[in-house]
Every structure is written in structure tokens, then in C-alpha cells.
């Protein structure tokens, strides 16, 4: 099952102030990947 690692985020919903902290590494990876592929990350944000 591909969602096994998602268990780490199960407790985040109890602490809404921590959602941004939990997503920080994902957003950094997403932006770095977009830059490496030469894509404009601003296009994704508007879509």
C-alpha cells in the first residue's frame, strides 16, 4: 500500500497550527523538482 508513510501525518490534524510545518518539506521538494525540470512553479500555483 502506498499510503503506509502517510501514517506519520495522522496526528497533524489534531494540531492545525502544525499543518504548515508538516507540509514544509513536501512543498520544498515540489519547488526544487519544478526548478530542476525547468518548469515555472508559479504556473502550478495558479492552476
From TrEMBL:
Gene3D superfamilies: 3.90.1010.10. This is SUF system NifU family Fe-S cluster assembly protein. The lineage of its organism: Bacteria, Bacillati, Actinomycetota, Actinomycetes, Kitasatosporales.
Amino acid at each position: 500500500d502506498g499510503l503506509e508513510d502517510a501514517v506519520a501525518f495522522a496526528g497533524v490534524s489534531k494540531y492545525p497550527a502544525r499543518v504548515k510545518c508538516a507540509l514544509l518539506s513536501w512543498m520544498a521538494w515540489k519547488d526544487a523538482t519544478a526548478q530542476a525540470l525547468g518548469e515555472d512553479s508559479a504556473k502550478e500555483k495558479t492552476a
